[in-house]
Each structure stands twice: as structure tokens, then as C-alpha cells.
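help with this:

***
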Amino acid sequence: MMGAVIAIDLGLKRIGLALSYGNGLVTPLNAIERKNRNQAANDVKKVLDEYEATTVVIGIPMGSTTEDEMRRRVEHFMNLVKFDGEIVYQDESHSSQEAEELMKGEIRYKRDGRIDSLSAKIILERYLTTL
């Protein structure tokens, strides 16, 4: 049994989060509103500590022209978080579009972070299928 795995969909306005204990179940968590880097890093750290995360899976657009730049930004952000477990990069291509498709039919489309956390859920599900 692995420890908690948390997926992060790192956005400029919101940070989507999802949780799994490696048992195939993935639960979206409440997204974090991003006011500034330090506040966002502190809030992410609290979630990682709360669930005793051993692995963080971060979505980046692999194979894109921005992959190296995104990897650098993610590394910088995770340094601010001060997470000492395993950090894994997972291709996030089209995860936001998939999440938006899943949300179709909801009463109102709101920018409340649900899309961001559903994106994180999709990223984590993709990662777990590679194990």
C-alpha cells in the first residue's frame, strides 16, 4: 500500500488538487485560490501535510514548446512548498478540456475550482494507470 498521492494542476488563478491512496479511487479536493506564490505554496503544503502525501504528481504539457518552461516553474513552486517526497511529472495534455466535458450538464458553469480539481483528478488517473 502506497501513501497518499496528490495530483496538482498548477494554474495561475487556481490550483486543482486530487487525492488517491493508490487503490484506484481518485477524489478531487477543493481547489486553492492563488493570490500570490507564497500563499499558494503554503496552502498546498497544508494539504500535503494533512493527507500525509508521499508522492506529488504534477501535470505539465509534455511534448509542447512550453514543456521546459513549465517544468522550471513547477520546480520553483515545489521548492517554495518544501515537499520532500517523490515528485512525478505527468502529461496533462487536454485534461482541462476533458474536465470541462465532464462538467457539462452542471447547473451553472462557475470558476470555483471544480474544473481545476477535475483536471487534477484526470492527471492522477493517468498516472495511476502507468504504475
Remarks:
- DSSP finds four helices and five strands in the chain.
- The chain has a mean pLDDT of 86.
- The helical segments are 37-50, 67-81, 95-103, 114-129.
- Strands lie at 4-10, 14-20, 27-33, 53-60, 86-91.
